[in-house]
Specification:
By secondary structure, the chain is of the alpha+beta class. The protein folds into two domains: about 90 residues, 3-layer Sandwich (Rieske Iron-sulfur Protein); about 240 residues, Alpha-Beta Complex (Naphthalene 1,2-dioxygenase Alpha Subunit, Chain A, domain 1), CATH 3.90.380. Strands 12, 13, 14, 15, 16, 17, 18, 19 and 20 form a nine-stranded antiparallel sheet that branches. A four-stranded antiparallel sheet has the order 2-3-4-9, with no helix packed on it. Strands 5-6-7-8 form a four-stranded antiparallel sheet, with no helix packed on it. Strand 6 and strand 7 form a beta hairpin. The chain is globular, with a radius of gyration of 23 Å.
């Protein structure tokens, strides 16, 4: 389906014939797609997948507070090198383990010294006779963690449905001189490390290629390369795992830039560099981490040739990074952050008027709705595998030059 011949599934009529804002209906949003807390439809869907919760270095001897899918947790690494992720309030009297001390066996509470390993087993109760004769009956709530690609990952779903941690072909196939680099600065968000709006607002941006022509190439100046300012001919395809956007741009020399990007389940950004420094398969993958209903951040892993290369991909507006802009420059040179955060903490879906350029948005919502239905029927959503020998996940995304 292409942007030229596509029609959205549903486009609501303008709410007021008079054109004034008086009497405007109270707006609403799609709760089943946006809310990520435990027990919500999307929250339970996301909990069937592994999510990055920090860089490998973030799991250290000093306990660290992290917030993931609306839950506050404590990340640490014990003296044996094992990463752990636990509910913050000690099972004894509720003191936060953020103030605890890591030891060879786990993390020890500062209040009465109860010691828990990375799987929540209570190993010691120093104030109790014999170190706690009933300590085996105590379990600190915890989540499984794993480490890969320079990131710490957590699985927060039902233990009996824990999938294997996926591998990705574009991160497994390195050319000579390349190595993997992980970054936590939310590359691709256009803003700070933590973005104060709902994760879906950014996820849907991945299947919106036309904003690149307006926002990134004309309204706020050329942020990437001149090729991105060319209006593309676009089509969208849905696979089991992704919504794929194929954009074709006819270049001045007669060649065609074929750009493929993908929004993959559950929250993946499979977006080739908009600077088009080289051609071929996508160089990096980003994972949007919903912190809660009103904030998210992005972890990125990419193939690089020099340290810091990934962070160098952060967008610049008026020649500056987001945090370097004045209030006036944020107004005069808006980017993704301003466009998405200004929609509100959660965008009002009832006030949208979708057009033909929004076909990708409709397809992505339908892909998510399909996974919610699978989950309601007792199935496993797309992209979940229980085979430890499963082949790496392969994407079609990349920048390709066609004669």
């Amino acid at each position: 389906m292409t942007a030229r011949d596509a029609r959205p599934a549903a486009a609501s009529a303008p709410p007021h014939d008079t054109g004034t804002a008086y009497g405007r209906p109270r707006p609403t949003y799609r709760r089943e797609l946006t809310e990520v807390g435990a027990g919500t439809p999307m929250g339970e869907l996301l909990r069937r997948y592994w999510h990055p919760i920090g860089l490998t270095a973030d799991a250290g001897a000093t306990p660290r507070m992290v917030r993931v899918l609306g839950e506050d947790l404590v990340l640490f690494r014990d003296g044996a090198g094992r990463a752990g992720l636990v509910y913050p309030h000690c099972a004894h009297r509720g003191t936060s383990l953020y103030y605890g001390r890591t030891e060879a066996g786990g993390i020890r509470c500062c209040y009465h010294g109860w010691l828990f390993d990375v799987e929540g087993h209570c190993l010691d109760q120093p104030c109790e006779p014999d170190g706690g004769r009933a300590r085996d009956r105590v379990r600190q709530p915890w989540y499984p963690v794993a480490e890969r690609y320079g990131l710490v990952w957590a699985y927060m779903g039902p233990p009996e449905r824990k999938p294997v941690l996926p591998r990705y072909e574009c991160l497994e196939t390195l050319e000579d001189g390349e190595f993997l680099e992980a970054d936590d600065s939310s590359i691709g968000s256009g803003g700070p490390q933590v973005v104060p709006c709902n994760w879906l607002q950014h996820y849907e941006n991945l299947v919106d290629p036309f904003h690149v022509v307006i926002l990134h190439s004309s309204f706020s100046g050329t942020q990437f390369v001149p090729q991105m300012a060319l209006m593309p001919d676009v089509r969208w395809d849905t696979t089991d795992l992704t919504v794929r956007t194929v954009s074709l741009r006819t270049l001045p020399d007669g060649k065609t830039l074929r750009r493929i990007s993908e929004a993959a389940l559950p929250t993946l950004r499979v977006i080739p560099s908009p600077r088009v420094g080289r051609y071929g398969m996508v160089e990096s993958i980003g994972w949007i981490l919903p912190i809660d209903d009103h904030s998210f951040r992005i972890y990125v892993v990419g193939r690089v040739r020099a340290p810091g290369e990934l962070r160098g991909m952060r967008s610049r507006l008026n020649g500056k990074l987001w945090e370097e802009l004045s209030d006036a420059e944020h107004r005069d040179y808006p980017g993704d952050y301003e466009a998405q955060v200004s929609q509100g903490k959660v965008a009002w879906h009832s006030e949208e008027f979708l057009a033909s350029s929004d076909v990708g948005i409709v397809k992505l919502r339908r892909l998510l709705e399909k996974q919610l239905a699978i989950l309601r029927d007792g199935g496993d959503p797309a992209g979940v595998s229980f085979d430890p020998d499963a082949a790496p996940v392969r994407f079609a995304a990349g920048n390709f030059l066609v004669d």
